[in-house]
Amino acid sequence: MRYFLNILLQSKTASTAAERYLLVYMIAVLVIVTSLVIIFFIVFQKRKNKLLLDRIEQQQAFEAEIAQAQTETQEQTLKNIGWELHDNIGQLLSFASMQLSILKMQMPNEVKDKFKDTTEALKDSLAEVRLLSKTLNNEVVLNIGFEKSITNELNRLKKMKFDTAELEIIGEKIDFKDRKHEIIIFRILQEFLSNSVKYSEAKNLNIILNYQKINLVITATDDGKGFNINETEKGSGLINMKSRAALIQAVLELTSQPNKGTKLIVNYPLQ
């Protein structure tokens, strides 16, 4: 009797051990399968994210190339216009001024005074054309310098219609890492100033160049009638400014309110 009980106990013990081993085996298989699924999911997600990033980078590179091509085309167009103004229109105005001077010499003294206003208008027009031609030629802008080009543009506009047009410089000047970026920022400011002339009815313009350690913060303001940005259709001017800023990794912000003027802030990384 005791013999049979021992056999039965041994059989149950063996059965329990086998079940235990089977359970451990099943748990191990489950852990391995789960781990493989998790690893597969992580690898798949990484590949998916990489493909998305590659696609985004390709799209950004494509857009940057398009913007660069458009900017280069615009620069060449402005350069050609600058040449035309300086060489052709300038020569015509010079010839007209010379002819008027000759005609003035042949007139009696009592008539000469009547030519004064016309002579002054021709001289002013000639000076304006020559100054404008310089601001349109990127080689001239690079030659005379970024800050001097802005000053010349403000002086030109001040003569046209503004009571004040001032440039303020804060901090110690830091050279641009790429001098072509000077042209791009100058064109952004030109676009802003051009819009102020055409639409703002402003009397005063102000540009601040704030040289910080790693950034150049440019603030341009006018005291014109302003506008509601949310209600105003984004025209080619704003699009041009933003696309140019994106080319040089600058952050551009334009703010305005009715009757409170317009402000442009460009944050350009110097390093």
From TrEMBL:
InterPro entries: HATPase_C_sf (IPR036890), HATPase_dom (IPR003594), His_kinase_dom (IPR005467), Sensor_HK_TwoCompSys (IPR050482), Sig_transdc_His_kin_sub3_dim/P (IPR011712). Its EC number is 2.7.13.3. Keywords: ATP-binding, Kinase, Membrane, Nucleotide-binding, Phosphoprotein, Transferase, Transmembrane, Transmembrane helix, Two-component regulatory system. The chain crosses the membrane at residues 20-44. It catalyses: ATP + protein L-histidine = ADP + protein N-phospho-L-histidine. One of its GO terms (molecular function) is kinase activity. Residues 185-271 form the Histidine kinase domain. This is histidine kinase. It comes from Mariniflexile jejuense.
